[in-house]
Design brief:
By secondary structure, the chain is an alpha+beta fold. Helix content is 55%, strand content 12%. The chain contains eleven helices and nine strands.
């Protein structure tokens, strides 16, 4: 089952600079090796800061007249980190993931009457192992001054007043997010779990993984040689009874106890090495898949460019042929028009030259004897119901 995870961290001015550098991806050499720079462009804001965190804080403080004495080491803002495990986000998909963070943002705006005006920045990171929201805010409370006037006061201590303040945050966040349709278990606060969250590389350093793995190969679980008490008693029966009771037996028991502890430690160390080996395997597989995806994306880009070029080439080729045919059609049309004009004048000239009674009579006689029409106006003559054959030459075709 997945958990609704929400954590709070208090920031001084110095820590705020580090948070700003990390959250805004202001450096290329990230200390967090889980950041995949190729996915950084997928990160997005729910509320985007226009200035650095400290300058945004100073602007909010002045704009809303926030009271409170601020020293160099004072807590000036807090950072909420809201997330769950990767299995949960894979299950609900991208749209519901976005809604999960938007609902979380609304919850913080309304929590303890904080107000959206005191939110400095809210950015969702999708370029690390699991999606998560970094929400920076000024811990402002509504109170009264000595004269009884209602004021806004910066006070992290009063905002998180009470031993159960973080437990209350967990309860209310879980109630809010589940009421919005997200099937999650209640997360546990640091006070409840007393655990820290480590990256794989940090965990390796803490557990001295590399040296531990070498040590595991050389550990032997055989019992050390222990003197046989019976043989010892045969040679020295009475004289060394105190030695047996006060030294040998306690040492014997101690050795057995240490052996049991050794076996237990060996099992625990074995679990740790297996866990790290598994994590390394998944990390290597992840890099392999990302590299393969990058290669496929590159190939798709090349194919897309080739397709665009081929389409452009064929389009130009056929456009060129179409233009050529259009020019030829225009030329043929002009030629036919000239031919019609010439035939018309030729008929008139023949009639005058050979004293033919009329132009129509000449064309009828010619059509009757040859079955060929020479009428430039495309008029047909039905003489004895005979028609020209399809394959005979016709000036009108």
């Amino acid at each position: 089952m997945s958990y609704a995870i929400i954590r709070n961290e208090k920031l001084t001015r110095a820590k705020s600079i580090g948070a700003y550098t990390h959250n805004e991806r202001k450096t290329k050499n990230h200390s967090n090796k889980n950041i995949d720079s190729s996915k950084t462009e997928l990160n997005y804001y729910i509320k985007q800061n226009e200035l650095s965190y400290i300058k945004e804080f100073d602007r909010i403080k002045e704009e809303h007249n926030i009271q409170g004495q601020i020293r160099s080491n004072s807590i000036i803002m807090c950072e909420m980190i809201i997330t769950s495990d990767q299995a949960f986000f894979d299950k609900i998909g991208a749209e519901e993931t976005k809604r999960y963070f938007e609902e979380s943002y609304k919850f913080i705006c309304n929590y303890k009457n904080l107000g959206e005006q005191n939110i400095i920045s809210a950015v969702v990171h999708l370029d690390e192992d699991s999606p998560h929201l970094h929400l920076l805010y000024a811990p402002v409370i509504k109170t009264t001054d000595k004269q009884g006037n209602l004021i806004n006061k910066l006070s992290c201590r009063d905002f998180w007043k009470g031993r159960d303040s973080y437990r209350d945050l967990q309860d209310k966040f879980h109630a809010h997010i589940t009421s919005r349709g997200f099937d999650l278990e209640r997360g546990k606060s640091v006070e409840e779990t007393n655990r820290k969250h480590y990256k794989i590389q940090d965990y390796k350093e803490i557990t001295n993984y590399d040296n531990t793995k070498k040590l595991m190969e050389s550990i032997k679980l055989d019992l050390p040689d222990v003197p046989d008490i019976k043989d010892f008693k045969k040679t020295i029966i009475n004289k060394y009874e105190k030695i047996e009771e006060q030294i040998i037996k306690p040492k014997d028991e101690l050795i057995k106890s240490l052996y049991k502890d050794n076996v237990s430690l060996h099992k625990e160390l074995s679990k740790q090495t297996k866990l790290i080996d598994k994590a390394k395997k998944y990390e290597n597989e992840k890099h392999s898949i990302l590299a393969e995806n990058k290669e496929l994306s590159s190939k798709c880009n090349v194919l897309e460019k080739d397709l665009k070029y081929e389409t452009y080439r064929l389009e130009n080729k056929y456009n060129s042929k179409i233009n050529k045919l259009e020019k030829e059609n225009k030329f043929l049309k002009k030629t036919i028009d000239k031919l019609k004009f010439a035939v018309g004048h030729f008929i008139v000239w023949i009639c005058d030259k050979f004293s033919v009674s009329s132009e129509e009579q000449l064309m009828r006689d010619f059509y009757k004897e040859t079955n060929i029409s020479i009428n430039p106006n495309n008029r047909q003559y039905d003489t004895e119901k005979s028609h020209p054959k399809e394959d005979e030459y016709d000036l009108e075709r």
